[in-house]
Structure formats: C-alpha cells, structure tokens
Design goal:
The protein is built from 1 helix and 11 strands. It is an alpha+beta fold. A hairpin with a 2-residue loop joins strand 5 and strand 6. It comes from Sphaerobacter thermophilus (strain ATCC 49802 / DSM 20745 / KCCM 41009 / NCIMB 13125 / S 6022).
Length: 149
C-alpha cells in the first residue's frame, strides 16, 4: 500500500465504499421481498380461516324473533338485551350482555357473561368458554339458537 499514490488509495477506498453500499441495499431489498412474500402467504391462510357462521332461531321464546330467522355472527358477537349487543334479543329471561360467541383459529366458542339465567349448549350449562360445532344448539333464556355454517 505504501507504493500506491495517495490518489489511487482514495479511489480504492471509494470503490470499496460504493461496493459495500450497493451490497447493503441489495440485502435490504432481498429481506423486504422475503417479508412481503411471507406476509402474502400468511394473509392467504388468514383468509382461509375467516369466520363463517350464523345462528338460526330454533325456538324464539318471548323474544319476538321468527323461527328460522338467520342471525349473522361477527368474529366477536355479544348476545343480549342491551341495545349495543351485536345480536339483540328482547326477552325477559335474557341479560343485558348474556353471552359472547367468539371466532378463534380453533373455531367458534361461547362464553357466558355472568348472566342471571345462564347459557346452555346442547342442554349443558356453560361454566367456562365452550367450543361449538355446527349444529350445536345454544340456549339463552327461553331462546334456542342453532349454529350453522
């Protein structure tokens, strides 16, 4: 290196610096593309696992619902008498926020929200979050709702 003139040494340093800069940019672009591909694959999996389901009124009780009426489910659905409930059931045996039906990766789950009269799935009282299958009947007060795809 001592035999190289100073100008050549600076030129060599500039070339190395530019090479490292372009190499760094190449690596950044490669990582970004890999992350975008990974995100695209992940969003396709999420779309495949999107919640689909609704509740069909089997027995309306005194709620004023029609038998056979179809109630759409959201990923988090609160069922109750309160006006802000996702599915509003106007029945004296239904609490303001009676039960919650939730979608997870594992499917639909129902949770009793501390209601006075309790929530039942296929006749069994719900004490902890309970997994649901299509065809299961959820009883809220006198109202019976069947989970359907």
């Amino acid at each position: 290196m001592a035999s190289l003139p100073f100008e050549w040494f600076l030129l060599l340093l500039r070339v190395v610096f530019i090479f490292l800069l372009y190499f760094f940019l190449f690596q950044v672009i490669r990582v970004i593309l890999r992350e975008m591909q990974s995100y695209a694959r992940g969003s396709q999996a999420v779309r495949a696992a999107e919640p689909s389901g609704h509740l069909i009124v089997k027995a309306p009780g005194n709620s004023g619902l029609r038998p056979g009426a179809r109630l759409e489910l959201e990923p988090v659905t609160v069922i109750g008498r309160h006006p802000r409930a996702t599915i509003r059931i106007d029945d004296s045996f239904v609490s303001g926020e009676h039960a919650q039906v939730t979608w997870t990766e594992d499917g639909w789950w129902v949770t009793d929200l501390g209601s006075t009269n309790g929530t039942r799935v296929n006749g069994k009282r719900v004490m902890v979050p309970t997994g649901l299958r299509y065809g299961d009947v959820i009883q809220i007060g006198d109202v019976e709702l069947q989970l359907a795809p």
